[in-house]
Design brief:
The complex is a heterotetramer of chains A (246), B (133), C (126) and D (570). Chain A has nine helices and seven strands. By secondary structure, chain A is of the alpha+beta class. Chain A folds into two domains: 102 residues, Roll (Ubiquitin-like (UB roll)), CATH 3.10.20.30; 131 residues, Alpha-helical ferredoxin (Fumarate Reductase Iron-sulfur Protein, Chain B, domain 2, Orthogonal Bundle), CATH 1.10.1060.10. In chain A, helix 6 crosses helix 9. Chain C is mostly helical. Chain C is elongated. In chain D, a hairpin with a 2-residue loop joins strand 7 and strand 8. Classes of the chains: A alpha+beta (246), B mainly alpha (133), C mainly alpha (126), D alpha/beta (570). Chains in contact: A-B, A-C, A-D, B-C, B-D. At the A-D interface, helix 1, helix 2 and helix 3 of A face helix 3, helix 4, helix 9, helix 12 and helix 14 of D. Bound molecules: flavin-adenine dinucleotide (FAD), iron/sulfur cluster, FE3-S4 cluster and FE2/S2 (inorganic) cluster. Flavin-adenine dinucleotide binds next to helix 1, strand 2, helix 4, strand 7 and helix 5 of chain D.
Amino acid sequence: MPDKKVTIQATRFDPDHDEKPRLQSYEIPFSDESMVVLDALNYIKSHVDGSLSYRWSCRMGICGSCGMMVNGTPKLTCNAFLREYWPRPVVVEPLNNFPLIRDLVIDMDDFMHKLKSIKPWIIRKQEIPLGSGEHRQTNDQIDEFRQFSECINCMLCYAACPVYGLNNEFLGPAATALARRYNLDSRDQGLTQRLPVIADTEGVWECSFVGECSVVCPKGVDPAKAIQQTKLDTTMRFVLPFGNRE
Amino acid sequence: MTSEAHAAGREYRWRMPTSWWTRSRNYFFYVVREFTALPLALWLLWLLVEIKRAGDGPARYSPHGSAAFVVFSVVVLLFALYHSFTFLTLAGTIIHLRVLDRPVPPSLIVLSQFGLWAVASGVIAFVLIWFGR
Amino acid sequence: MIRRSALLHLFYWFAFAQGGVIAAVLIPVHVLVQGILGPLGMVPVVDRHYDTWVRVLGNPLVKLYLLVLIALPFFHFAHRLRYLLVDLGVPAAKGVPAQAVFYGGAVAITLVTIWVLLTTVPMSFG
Amino acid sequence: MEFESYDVLVVGGGLAGIRAAIAAVEANPRVRVGMVSKVYPMRSHTVSAEGGAAAALAPDDSYETHAFDTIKGSDYLADQDVVEAFVREAPVEVIQMEHWGCPWSRNPDGTIAVRPFGGMTTWRTCYAADKTGFHMLHTVFQTSLKYPQITRHDEAFVTKLLVEDSRCVGVVALDIRSGRFDAITAKSVILATGGLGRVYAFTTNGNICTGDGMALAYRAGAALKDMEMVQFHPTGLPFTGILITEAVRGEGGYLLNNQGERFLKRYVPNKMELGPRDIISRAMVTEFEAGRGFDGPHGKYMHLDVRHLGEAVIDRKLPFMRELGREFVGIDIVTDPIPVRPVQHYMMGGVDADISGATPILGLYAAGECANVGLNGGNRLGSNSLSECLVFGAAAGRAAAHYAASARPVTANPVDAMLWDEAHRVEAAYLEKKGGDERIGVIREEMQKEMDAGAGVFRTRDGLSRLARNLGGLRERFEKVKIEDSSRTFNTEITAALELDFMLEVASAITFSALAREESRGAHARLDFPERDDKKFLKHTVAFHTNALAPRLEYSEVTITNFQPQARTY
Ligand SMILES: Cc1cc2nc3c(=O)[nH]c(=O)nc-3n(C[C@H](O)[C@H](O)[C@H](O)COP(=O)(O)OP(=O)(O)OC[C@H]3O[C@@H](n4cnc5c(N)ncnc54)[C@H](O)[C@@H]3O)c2cc1C
Ligand code: SF4
Ligand code: F3S
Ligand code: FES
């Protein structure tokens, strides 16, 4: 198939010149079955239009920077194969629910604040000295939180969550999943420091369990599960007779 | 200059259209799931009326039975089943149980939920019919 | 420490979850038997006959059951409908007045149910 | 234009950079640390490391064997004092990572587990399933958030080091989002900008690995050491270059040629699949040339076979590999062999730095892949690099904090002028230039093809000379490059141009260093000089920037303590 073509419609927006975003069409060669949407964007940038802006780096689905809306669904573009869309045109837009900086580049500041707000580090009442070696932790104990530690901060879940779209104050899926990752870690003792953030009005209670966050998550993190479990655990602390209400 | 202090004025602010839930199947089914509350509530109100009518005396007692009511109930039943199905499935992802220090797999939890539902439904149906003879 | 306003949400959610379980487990069979099979005459049902209905309603255990069956789901419904309004673009449904209306409504229905159950058929252990 | 000032400024938000920032603060809590990174730190390429981090932790392991393996692996080009310090610190750093929350895979008794790795004589590679780099990077990044002393400048691209009287006093950075140039000054600066894989076409490295820090230091007058030592990893996926981790072989995978034969028996009979990377890569290319490779649309390849390990082992230890196979090749590694071929992977060479990361420029330090502290010599052993980032990142952080405590403050006066000059240089070269008709993408692709051809697994004088000439031609064409993007906001075409400029710089350092080393050692294999020549070349190549294409080359002694060079066979 030497002459196969694919049409890419990409969002263009330059705050210096544009009032609002528009779509621009590019027709490019679809030269290899294993081409992904990101390859198409790279082809455009290298050979057709050097001014198209977007983020990417690893091209192997792990750095989390290449998330965009592909035909309306949040995707890692390095992991979205053109063959699954061809011959229809592929519409590539910036992730929903975020302020747009330029073309396909969204503003991440909000998440960076939220990430910090849940104190994503090991909190201990008493540090053990380095000299006494590692904390013992079994593989079963790791399995408790492993799933929630796989988050690559790609923001697809935020783009999929209508609750976040309506209310940016909502702590949201990935941040809650990471909070739960630390709360479930046998080495951590910071739950009571995180509760005021995760169980706040704009915390887990905002989530109405749409569940789309978990559907789009490329790493199987299941943030919806993290949120609902947090609701249940927190509630139990208060309603069970011997719950810890701290 | 620090990422904490960027002027955000020149950004394009994304707005969620109120019709967002018509844009994807999953969103639509989510809204349907939440909406099940309304028909179920109406039907329970009817049950309350049915109870109240027991005070009407033997001569004037007339339980609901019109065709319209049956149709309404069929619709409510569909919503009720959808609610049960989604609620009991989702509960499986929430409940985080350990037995003998091993996590119980979610599929087992879901299965036991559905089992409980089946048993409860059987018992209730039996009672409703047995005492109605 | 969790803030007071957030604690309120915790209790709303707790009531929502309990009501949801009750609704999921109990309602479908009532709708099927009392709303469809009974009226169509396919099976005998307790509320189709005055005497059986009154006899059963007199039982305090039945009264308690009916209270749970009817009242608890309303806390679930109130929660869902309030959030649904928010999702469909009515942010006002978040506010304290809306909370008062929705959860207050569920409380009102609970009270009405109690009143109906206590006033219709006198308790008897027969 | 703004002017921020710190005690210590770290350039780079990868494992080495963040470790350095935390070390600086822990060494002296009053130190104010700035951290500049051209991408959000958790996007740094450390995130893609899969296999693990080496440390002599296991009860049957010893510092001596780790040191010996590393030195032998380096083909005796490592500085042995550096290696000895490294092997002692590595276990401490691994434990430190554990205390910060890294989800290391464990033994049944709850201690940190180790796995075998190429070139290591015992099991000593600590791992977090097969996403080790990902977990380590997110762990240090998230931990760094708890230090109020660290201020981040995310998505800021350093274009130049500010050097005043041969002392480094900060950097000029382009704030990518606003397009503004800022001077960020500091009493000491640590470069931790990672590798340069993108000078090659076929590489495991991400888009951001463009050798910026090496070029920055080089232009500022520091030297680049052993730049000819470029590692090729035996097992990359054809077309994408995505890495199939060495842990696949560590866990027992076989490399098979088109005869279904474990051909490594002819090259590293005692180690087989656990031989070092340089030798296995050469073995594969030799087999290809003998017609024993598979032919595919993206060139020749071999099979990496893990089918005999079984689904349970694969899912527990190599889940990410299964995911990559499924997503990027459309195979299930439980039932299909994985197609692989050698791929550029790592840069042993880098900014010439001593054991504490200090460069000859006062106040300038370097750590991680962009540095060459003398640990890796001619060939890095797999899993030594993540540990290197920790050990020497921390060392550089402490040294920089210490130096900053006594250094005199930076004065605004010359800095302002330097900032102005640099902003003008970039704007004149890219934003305001009229005319020009060369595309960045085209020049970059040609450079990458040239590098693959001329400075790949095997090298010759002819190939390298041709490469040098062609790089000269590309440099001239680069002067005529055209920028289509006139916006100030998130202009990634300017950053691409700046990166290409840096890459052309380091590519020529690689080429001329390789041309001058007329022997074969470690990853540097000359077909015209197939033997190692300890008499002439048991030395580090040290390249200094000149105004011409070719650098000025010098040689420095290799430190030898306990291990005399021997023949390197496995
Ligand atoms: C696919 C793959 C697998 C690997 N697996 C292993 C393994 O199993 N074990 C092992 O030990 N090693 C492994 N390595 C090697 C190891 O991961 C790297 O050597 C190491 O992570 C480099 O870390 P770093 O901190 O030096 O650089 P990086 O993580 O690359 O970080 C560089 C930082 O510098 C910043 N930067 C660069 N240029 C500029 C600029 N101009 N201005 C501002 N900021 C800039 C970037 O934004 C980034 O934050 C692997 C490498 C690859 C590619
Ligand atoms: S939870 Fe999943 S979708 Fe959300 S940021 Fe993390 S990896 Fe991405
Ligand atoms: S999509 Fe949103 S509403 Fe909750 S379950 Fe996920 S965060
Ligand atoms: S480019 Fe890294 S996740 Fe896609």
